[in-house]
Amino acid sequence: MEKENNRCQRCGTCCRKGPPGLHRLDKRLYEQGTLQKGHLLTLRQGELVRDNVMDRTIRLSEEMVRIRSKSHEAACIFFDGKTSGCQIYESRPLECRVLECWDTSKIQQVYAEDRLTRADLFLPDSALGQIADAHEHHCSYARVAELADRIRANAEPDKRDLQELAGMVVQDLGIRKSFQDKTKAGDFVLEFLFGRSLVRTLPGFGLEVRETEEGYRFLKTDAWDRHRK
Ligand code: SF4
């Protein structure tokens, strides 16, 4: 009986919980075309993300690329709810191959090792790599976190901090729009190339972004305190 339980029943529970992060061993799936830019999401260094394996919110110490979730649900985009099956089962990524839900020791061993980044997927000195680097330079989460910490901590935040953060939001949106105007890239491709927009991720740092006639303003939220509990 125990033996029966100790094998994958293909119930789909792990695929419903969320998609896998990718590792350098998965690069061939991108090169073969199984995984394309619009299937992927970049989580940038310093971003606050939900860690499904550890079941907590963490600040990423290094960039990672993962498969996207379906819209409005956590399940992996390759999960077929009707059959509870994987649409790329024969080519599924490393984490899906090693995950045994009855014993998570194997996935915990590989989980943080040798993670795939955008730089692994861009050609050396490519225009895509250069524009992603420029975006990272102008919109780094190291600086976002510093500014957000100070703004949250002060009842009357320093205007220079507010202006700098608003400027980063403008830069972030501007780089995306300029790239999209030139290439007609879809929104999912933009989220692979530049990660999620600061408008989407700043609430995780305790600041909601509001666009007003005077520019971008920030509203403090309790998200930061919730993450820390
Ligand atoms: S790639 Fe396939 S096996 Fe892996 S989480 Fe997605 S649907 Fe499940």
In words, what does this structure look like?
It is built from twelve helices and eight strands. With 229 residues, it is α+β, with helices and mostly antiparallel strands. The strands form four sheets. The protein has a two-stranded antiparallel sheet with strand order 1-4. The chain binds iron/sulfur cluster (SF4). Residues 15, 19-20, 67, 76, 78-79, 86, 88, 92-93, 96 line the site of iron/sulfur cluster.
- The chain-level structural class is alpha+beta
Bound ligands: iron/sulfur cluster
Strands in their spatial order, largest beta sheet: 1-4
- In angstroms, what separates the terminal alpha carbons? 39 Å
What is the mean predicted local confidence, pLDDT?
Answer: 90
Helix content: 40-55%
- Taken together, the total number of domains comes to 2
Order of helices and strands: HHHEEEEEEHHHHHHHHEEH
Q: Please give the oligomerization state of what you see.
A: single chain
Extended strand count = 8
Low-confidence stretches: none
Residue share in β-strands: 5-15%
Q: How would a textbook summarize the main sheet?
A: 2 strands, antiparallel
What's the shape?
globular
- The total count of helices amounts to 12
Overall radius of gyration = 19 Å
